[in-house]
Design goal:
heterodimer, A: about 525 residues, mainly alpha, MetI-like fold, 2 domains, two-stranded parallel sheet, B: about 240 residues, Rossmann fold, five-stranded antiparallel sheet, 11 strands, globular
Chain lengths: ~525, ~240
């Protein structure tokens, strides 16, 4: 009985901590807005211009989400449903853009236009933002739909083949079967795109997220910025209500598809498939990197040394903070997922979903208003504020990837040990944890890369004395020569790439060791 | 003599009532077959006896001692001297066959564990599979490992949740024969859940026919065959 009470108290404490650190600042923002001014001022931000800006942001993000979902689904179909030569290479290479911060691609594409056309005016537009968001986020949709396609039982397709053509089977059976995955892909990219600060800011495209940031940081119009944040928050809440059905139980992707019996097809003319994948890979990864290299070398002098001097210290600090952040995000994700999948306690997952949906700049404003006080300065003035930011932004994704891993470990594995008298702690460490290791490792790597590239909130809350790579590049790039910006971006890309390669190497060993089926 | 007594058991998962007013006594050293259509509550009965679930209402006694009563568990699962063979076998995929069986023998010396596991592996004819992982075994070998694991702690009660559902009839008969011999040697009480009535009708043990969380009929093979209960008639004639 005492153990049970102790368990409830510790659970309650963790939920309370999550609520106080992540959700309370957002709720207080709404309360501050409601109590901070008279009604006329309260609603002054709802103007025609504001509504147009909101519509423009939603439209921009919807188009990017749609295009990313289409491209990701095509890649997933080619790579997960057909037996292609070099499919492993394409799967890994096409995922790389996901692990690179969007603003790196923004710089690269801008470089490309400058190099080809001599000016970048055409790129400073909504089209530029859509292009970069599509190319950066399509690997996420490929991962989710690919995982869903791998789980479709061969029998469904074979039964379809008995009566209809492949084309009809594809559109009438296969794609409808993975509709939840398609919906989730679309919604996730929509949220990421809406929340992204770096790309529209870099291209000078005014989205609502940028507008909130500008009012707050440039014009110091706090009341208007808070009002706009609340509007965005309310929009997100509506979005959340619509999405809760899909996202809170989102399958995301399975790290390890146990006992999969999906059908894969042989292809005679592999050349066409390879050509399609190669073109996508070229546009999404090789071309931007090539453009960055060209631009870095095009100046009158080489900027690499200067670039390294500028962002070298920030790179080390970024890696340290991102590593700690990824550990925190993974641990919290494991706890929230465990509560949801094994204890049917959904509250931690819902709190993380709420903070995930909130746009980055709104989160930044809420954190500044809440933590920037003498009593909470130990958080606001240290890297703790960044760790809380990472938790708020990426905790939900971690919880869902791990949750999917937990779903694949039958409860009977633990029951069998329980009957033998194995203690809960031993059951967890000896049975569940080893089986979840691939999912935990993937979550950690993804969280690390996302933390390393986070800009939208970090630019608003990073504490004095802490230098972060994305923030540093973003602030320097405003007044630096193009070649210097490209050199810094290329160094940033190289740092990310080195860690990805290290993680790939470790991952290969881990996945081999933990491959049981 | 009765080993396990269930009195007026009711149990539900959320809003869904799975057992209601379920009472039955299981005889010591005998095999009882729980049969009935899918979703009728057979597995729930096993989970309640094992202590993995606590009944919402009613009393469960083992060896005359109350182990669960009215929503409270007084004896933990591992103190009930039960072995459980799960429907999916629940063999831990990251453990070898040896470690799967040895995992529960935690309070013994390493040499004693080795001896005990070797003994049971020999008994089940899978001694050469000790270092294999579950995914390296055939379906029949996996079943043997699962049963061996549940018997290694020498339980008084063996609970079998359709563990032989997906194997061919010859192998199934061979495993059941093996179990019968083991039961005679070790004198454990066995409760065997199946949805195939033909499986239970071939043996001379107690049969309990369940439907919608209730007992429709119970008794020997002959008594069940003579039952006037319309559900039992349609179920065994199906």
């Amino acid at each position: 009985m005492a153990a049970k009470i102790g368990k409830y108290i510790s659970q309650f404490t963790l939920v309370l901590l999550l609520f106080v650190l992540v959700i309370l600042p957002l709720l207080l923002l709404i309360i501050q807005w409601l109590t901070g001014a008279d009604k006329a001022v309260l609603l002054s931000f709802i103007s025609r211009e504001t509504l147009l800006l909101v519509s423009k942001s939603l439209l921009l993000s919807s188009v990017a989400a749609f295009l990313a979902t289409v491209i990701g689904t095509v890649c997933a179909l080619l790579l997960y449903k057909f037996r292609l030569l070099f499919s492993g290479f394409f799967k890994a290479a096409l995922l790389l853009p996901l692990f690179v911060s969007p603003y790196i691609f923004a710089v690269a594409w801008k470089d490309g236009f400058y190099w080809v056309f001599g000016n970048t005016a055409a790129f400073y537009s909504v089209a530029g933002v859509i292009l970069v968001h599509t190319l950066v986020f399509f690997p996420l949709t490929m991962l989710i739909t690919g995982s869903a396609l791998s789980r479709v039982h061969a029998g469904y397709e074979e039964a379809g083949f008995m009566i209809v053509s492949f084309r009809k089977m594809l559109f009438k059976i296969l794609l409808p079967l993975i509709r939840p995955a398609l919906t989730i892909s679309f919604l996730l990219v929509l949220i990421f795109s809406l929340s992204d600060f770096s790309v529209p800011a870099f291209f000078g495209v005014n989205t609502f997220t940028i507008e909130v940031f500008t009012q707050f940081s440039a014009f110091y119009n706090y009341q208007l910025a808070i009002g706009q944040s609340v509007l965005l928050l309310v929009l997100c809440l509506f979005l959340m209500l619509a999405e809760i059905r899909y996202l809170s139980d989102a399958p995301f992707f399975s790290v390890d598809i146990r006992g999969s019996v999906s059908k894969r097809y042989d292809v005679e003319k592999q050349l066409i498939f390879h050509a399609v994948l190669s073109v996508i890979l070229f546009i999404a990864l090789l071309l931007p990197v090539f453009m960055l290299v060209i631009q870095s070398l095009s100046g009158r002098m080489l900027f690499f040394e200067q670039a390294w001097e500028l962002i070298g210290p920030a790179a080390f600090q970024s890696v340290k903070v991102a590593f700690t952040g990824a550990l925190l995000v993974t641990a919290t994700g494991l706890w929230a997922a465990w509560m949801q999948e094994r204890r049917q306690f959904r509250l931690p997952g819902l709190l993380l979903l709420f903070s995930f949906i909130v746009p980055s700049t709104v989160l930044g404003i809420a954190f500044i208003r809440h933590f920037n006080t003498p009593s909470l300065n130990f958080i606001y003035g240290s890297v703790l504020i960044l760790l809380i930011t990472y938790l708020a932004r990426f905790g939900f994704i971690a919880s869902r990837i791990i949750g999917n891993g937990i779903k694949q470990v039958p409860a009977s594995f633990e029951d069998a040990a329980r009957i033998m008298g194995i203690s809960p702690a031993t059951r967890f460490y000896r049975i569940t944890l080893p089986l979840l290791f691939p999912a935990l490792f993937t979550t950690f790597v993804l969280s690390f890369v996302l933390c390393l590239g986070e800009l939208g909130t970090a630019i608003m809350v990073y504490p004095p004395g802490t230098e972060l790579m994305p923030v540093k590049i973003f602030t320097i790039s405003a007044n630096a020569p193009q070649a210097l910006t490209s050199s810094m971006t290329l160094i940033n890309f190289a740092v990310v790439l080195v860690f990805i390669l290290v993680f790939l190497f470790i991952g290969k060993i881990i996945f081999k060791k933990f491959q049981y089926v | 003599m009765y080993k396990i007594i269930l009195e007026n058991i009711a149990h539900s998962y959320g809003d869904k009532q799975v057992l209601s007013d379920f009472s039955f006594s299981f005889e010591q050293g005998k095999t009882t077959y729980l049969v009935g259509p899918s979703g009728c509550g057979k597995t729930t009965v096993l989970r309640l006896i094992s202590g993995l679930e606590t009944p919402s209402q009613g009393i469960i006694k083992i060896d005359g001692k109350i182990v669960s009563a009215e929503g409270k568990t007084s004896v933990a699962p591992h103190q009930r001297q039960t072995g459980f063979v799960f429907q999916d076998l629940a063999l831990w995929p990251h453990f070898t066959v040896f470690n799967n069986i040895a995992f529960g023998l935690k309070e013994r010396k390493a040499s004693a564990i080795k001896e005990k596991v070797s003994e049971i592996l020999k008994l089940f004819g899978i001694a050469d599979k000790a270092k294999k992982y579950p995914h390296q075994l055939s379906g029949g070998q996996k079943q043997m490992v699962a049963i061996a694991r549940s018997l290694v702690l020498e339980p008084d009660i063996l609970l079998m949740d359709e563990p032989l559902a997906n194997i061919d009839i010859k192998l199934k008969e061979s495993i059941l024969q093996h179990l019968k011999i083991l039961q005679q040697q070790l004198n454990f009480t066995m409760i065997y859940v199946t949805h195939e009535h033909s499986e239970s009708m071939n043996v001379e043990n107690c049969i309990v026919v369940m439907n919608a969380g209730k007992i429709e009929a119970s008794g020997s093979k002959e008594e069940i065959a003579r039952s006037e209960n319309s559900f039992v008639k349609s179920f065994i004639n199906f």
